[in-house]
Amino acid sequence: MNSFLGPVGKTEALTPNSEPMIDPFGRAVTYLRVSVTDRCDFRCTYCMSEHMTFLPKKDLLTLEELNRLCSAFIQKGVRKLRLTGGEPLVRKNIMELVRNLGRHVYAGTLDELTLTTNGSQLARNAEELYDCGVRRINVSLDTLDPVKFKQITRWGDFSKVMKGIDAAQKAGLQIKLNAVALKDFNEFEIPEMMRFAHGRGMDLTVIETMPMGEIEEDRTDRYLPLSQLRTQLEEQFTLSDIPYKTGGPARYFKVTETGGRLGFITPLTHNFCESCNRVRLTCTGTLYMCLGQNDAADLRTALRASEDDGLLSNAIDEAILRKPKGHDFIIDRTHKRPAVARHMSVTGG
Ligand code: SAM
User: Fold this and answer.
1) pTM here?
2) Which of 24, 59, 114, 159 is buried deepest, with most CB atoms within 10 A?
3) Does the pLDDT value for residue 3 go beyond 50?
4) Which residue owns the Cα nearest ligand 1 atom 4?
């Protein structure tokens, strides 16, 4: 046990349930993603509108409540937990939650604690993340060109993200870069991004843009099917299918020329629902059983109704029984509205 973590407090929260939660389609739910804040220090054009209305701070669960909720899921068989947002590292005192959840990793009741970040705050948090039991993180990066970076993030500082990546690697964190594939933006930059990532021992995953939340532009203009990107890449690179899995939806290829791994996340051209093992919790205690559907369960009421976790456990069971078979994202000009009204920042990526 790492001395930084200190004594384990509520030991009962570290007792796992060996029976995983099973949804109506026989899928075991073992992966929880938690959006710890809907706020972000970037305004990526495909993700958010420039003038977002965020939740009032009073509606947020406290870090203690989030810890209790996450621990309840771990007791019910969750083995992988990802903190996301908004930008998880802009939530005040977030490292308190990371430290508490890290106790489950050190106790062996959680296989992996990880996070998805834009990298802006990594330089100051990387060492502490490692100390808390985090070993791998995803960093979202859509371009290596500082001018284009400013254009896509509106508010981001490219050099800060690069410093964050340096610090994370120095601290021993394994990094996967995530890039949303965008037509007429980074379509022809993916080879360079792949060489950069693989040259530094990082995986790169490309993602199709999903129709979530109103933004200023029409996503159809930027949508790049990954089947098309793959054909383009295969003119220069040899991609071989590999069975590598990280518990998420990406399908991986080995790239002969770079020796690295390239992942594809294809919610539109090929949905990955049949193997979905995930549910998503928001910072207000709402549980979304599917990224692409509107149905959600309120866990906050059960959490606050009693200090004992019995009601909460029942509310989670009821929610899992409502997990739908899958999503059906469609992106084209005849569908003027996003498939779901909420932005990705509500449930995290
Ligand atoms: N702030 C963190 C970050 O930048 O990684 C975590 C939250 S962000 C919403 C998580 C991921 O979702 C990022 O990789 C982002 O690029 C991706 N994303 C946001 N909106 C998206 C959309 N409409 N379609 C596909 N990916 C999206």
Assistant:
1) 0.94
2) 114
3) no
4) 118
